[in-house]
Write a structure and sequence with these properties.
- This protein is an alpha/beta fold and 510 residues long.
- It has 2 domains: 13-266 and 475-493, 3-Layer(aba) Sandwich (Aldehyde Dehydrogenase, Chain A, domain 1), CATH 3.40.605.10; 270-455, 3-Layer(aba) Sandwich (Aldehyde Dehydrogenase, Chain A, domain 2).
- The protein contains 15 helices and 23 strands.
- The strands form 6 sheets. The chain has a 7-stranded mixed beta sheet with strand order 16-17-18-15-14-20-21, with helices on both faces. A 5-stranded parallel beta sheet has the order 11-10-9-12-13, with helices on both faces.
- Strand 7 and strand 8 (148-155) form a beta hairpin.
- The protein is globular and about 80 Å long.
């Protein structure tokens, strides 16, 4: 449970920052070393959101032990009963939706409309997954032998280690925790160090819902000191990670070395194709939302806009005009359209790519391209929404994930050229096409090498009852959301019942 920090609050804070705890075995406990780290508001770094445990391998080990102790009993709870706990958590999230959204905006920056949506996604996920408590279907089939029955069922895996990012700090944990526990597993989650408060609120909901101790556990801290020990702990049977491609590949190697199951959701370099017959007003609206929603800090963000040359000039003019009109500021202000990036490292990363776009890529900077420091913005990590024009498809800013409010307009000659450019990256998460031609729309859906494809809509906006994930460097083939999430968190078990009363040998002929 949080306690008030002894030190007084800064003048701009209304109360002293609270000190929070890990959630292990149904108890709120500090890190074994007694150390904490500060969680800052990215819109105003003078504002400390709270202090959280600086956990290490020792804390991870205790959490994994608690999860392992709870597992044998939890896996025997009937799935419909497991689902009842998830229903109760969903009801608590509905009740606390506004408070959770306010906290989330304060700790990671995106505007309140988006953090309310983030929380709603967790609510939706609770409803969807709970419904599967009575539909964890297997298969029955005929046997090749007489008087023999054959079927399949889903079985739990064990203790799961979950590592989640800061851009969707309650939605993505819900994608992992709900299906994991519905399938009979227990979990230890390590949230991103930038957004531990949102996952703390999530744990409080599980506690209030009466989930048995040890089924869900949380340790906060940094990747090197808490995330890595979670991945390598011998009791962890499955690792589910959402984050950077670089870290994901390292986790994949570590998991493979230890024979663990591993689910990775990593980067994206997503494209919106705008053809010459597109509704340009709609396309611009989609491009603005796709490129600058969450300040571009989405793995599905539209960081490439592939525009037919016949409408390039008009579309670009409309896009730049709309981009310049976006209001940047604190996400808690209802007038704000775009909040800050999440931290200093992210600020420097995005500004670096902007400089690369200007110099190495020789792209034309059409608007934005700088840090905003006027007035109170000087205390946050604010970057003006940025549009580059006349970008070569091979340019760095057209190939590498930036994860900020930056998009590149890339000219194309025709439909085939647009598809070639869209597919010409190492990622394959999401893509979209704006066109009035149903034939070209269906060809695009067939030919785009992505896990998600939209027609006349931007690259963001996935729904929980459908699978989420991508191809190529985006992940390792698993999907989150939809029924496919159950495949990550369960094992198939095949069962045979021979009622012939004699030995029967499959595939053997006398």
């Amino acid at each position: 449970m949080p306690t008030k920090k002894a030190s007084s609050a800064p003048a701009h804070q209304t109360a002293a920052p609270l000190t929070y705890a890990n959630y292990i075995g149904g108890q709120w406990v500090p890190a074994k070393n007694g150390e904490t780290f500060a969680n800052y508001n990215p819109a105003d770094t003078r504002d400390i959101v709270g202090y959280f445990p600086h956990s290490t391998a020792e804390d991870v080990a205790v959490a994994v032990e608690a999860a392992a102790e709870a597992y044998p009993k939890w896996r025997r709870v009937p799935p419909p009963k497991r689902a009842e706990y998830i229903v109760r958590v969903g009801e608590i999230l509905i009740r606390d939706k506004e408070a959770i959204a306010q906290d989330m905006t304060r700790e990671m920056g995106k505007i309140l409309k988006e953090t309310r949506g983030d929380t709603q996604e967790a609510i939706d996920m609770a409803a969807f997954v709970a419904g599967e408590g009575r539909r964890l279907y297997g298969q029955t089939t005929t046997s090749e032998l007489p008087d023999k029955f054959a079927m399949t069922v889903r079985d739990a895996i064990g203790v799961c280690g979950l590592i989640t990012p800061w851009n969707f700090p309650i939605a993505i944990p819900s994608w992992k925790i709900f299906p994991a526990i519905l399938c009979g597993n227990t979990v230890v989650i390590k949230p991103a160090e930038d957004t531990p408060l949102s996952v703390y609120r999530f744990m409080k909901a599980f506690e209030e819902a009466g989930l048995p101790p040890g089924v869900v556990n949380m340790v906060t801290g940094y990747g090197e000191t808490a995330g890595a020990p979670l991945v390598t702990h011998p009791t962890i049977r499955l690792v589910s990670f959402t984050g950077s491609t670089q870290v994901g590949r390292l986790i994949a190697m570590q998991a493979a070395d230890k024979g663990k199951k591993c689910s990775l959701e990593m980067g994206g370099k997503n494209a919106i194709i705008i053809l010459d017959d597109a509704n340009l007003d709609l396309a611009v609206e989609g491009a603005i939302w796709g490129a600058f929603g969450t300040a571009g800090q989405r793995c599905t963000a539209a960081s490439r806009l592939i525009v037919h040359k016949k409408v390039l000039k008009k579309f670009t003019h409309m896009l730049v005009e709309r981009t310049r009109a976006l209001r940047v500021g604190d996400g808690r202000d209802p007038a704000t359209d775009v909040g800050p990036v999440v931290n200093q490292d992210q600020l420097e990363r995005v500004l670096h790519y902007i400089e690369v776009g200007r110099t190495r890529d020789k792209a034309k900077l059409l608007c934005g391209g700088l840090r905003l420091t006027d007035g109170d913005l000087a205390h946050g990590y604010f970057i003006a929404p940025t549009v580059f024009g006349e970008v070569d498809p091979a340019a760095v800013i057209a190939q590498e994930e930036i994860f900020g409010p930056v998009t590149a307009v890339i000219p194309c000659h025709d439909f085939e050229d647009a598809i070639r450019i869209a597919n010409g990256v190492n990622y394959g998460l999401s893509a979209s096409i704006y066109t009035g031609d149903v034939n070209r729309a269906f060809r695009a859906m067939r030919d785009l090498e992505t896990g998600i494809c939209y027609v006349n809509a931007p690259t963001i906006g996935a729904e929980v009852h459908l699978p989420f994930g991508g191809t190529k460097g985006t992940g390792n083939g698993h999907r989150e959301g939809g029924l496919q999430a159950l495949d990550i968190f369960s094992e198939w078990k095949t069962l045979y019942v021979d009622f012939s009363g004699r030995l029967q040998k499959a595939q053997i002929t006398d």
